[in-house]
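Lab notebook page, bench 4
Experiment: in silico fold of construct C2
Operator: M.H.
Input chain length: 283 residues
Purpose: comparison with the prior construct
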Amino acid sequence: MQSNEDTIKLIFLGDITGRQGRTAVKSYIASLKEKPDFIIANIENASHGFGLTKKNYVDLSENGIDCFTSGNHIWDKKDIYEYIDEADNLIRPINYPAGTRGAGSRIFEIKGQKLGVINALGRVFMPPIDSPWQVVTDEIKKMQSDGVEHIIIDFHAEATAEKICFSKYLAKEFNNENNALIKGFFGTHTHVQTADEQIINGMAYITDAGFCGAVDSVIGMEFETSLKRLSTSLPERYEIAENPCAQVNGVEVLIDRTGATHIKRINVTINNNGSEGLNDGQS
């Protein structure tokens, strides 16, 4: 997909999980022949599978990621409280209670156009949280009044039905055939990439973008510890998988002032020892 002066080429990467995910993402970005205009990545699992350290935040910022979304695990590394208020490209879910540290949305300028990014948590099969429906709707209206032309949403949720329904609601409320405000709605959290990428009323959509981390794993975690925890229901600390073969999942999207025009899944396998290959023709 080629971009020009009137379009924005955007890459959204699914949950970066552990060192293998971080290494693979940095290799993937460095290998791109045509650099996108903007890269967003979900990083709630970036530091050993749980949370985000300041060191990893700075490292990923310096390696091409423009905006970081997150989820319920963003609080798992306690030093998050030391830097979240100063991290101007890091977003935590917007539907935490009023007064929660950090920002639930950010506005960026790309090619002279304002692009807003909103992060929200789902409620089905998830920890208790404020309803995203009204909170996100209010934030979209606020961004619209501030002159934002494009809005991207990372909906961090478990239930596919909740993701599909919420996306269709927003596409119906804020988009029309000639002008789409919501340019992208990307699901995260399950770490399993879905094959339903599509454009809904001018909005690029995928139920789950997948994850970036070890291929031979259970959603990025070691098989043995996952097996003990899931088969016995006894407490067992998850350990991050360390094998060098990693996957990079996400979507590549092209948007213009009227709406999203293209969406393509990213499903790349990278050997963190040096080699790279593409899965089944995906970019």
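Observations: Confidence is low (pLDDT under 50) at residues 278-283. Residues 8-278 form a domain with the Purple Acid Phosphatase; chain A, domain 2 fold (CATH 3.60.21.10).
Next step: discuss at group meeting.
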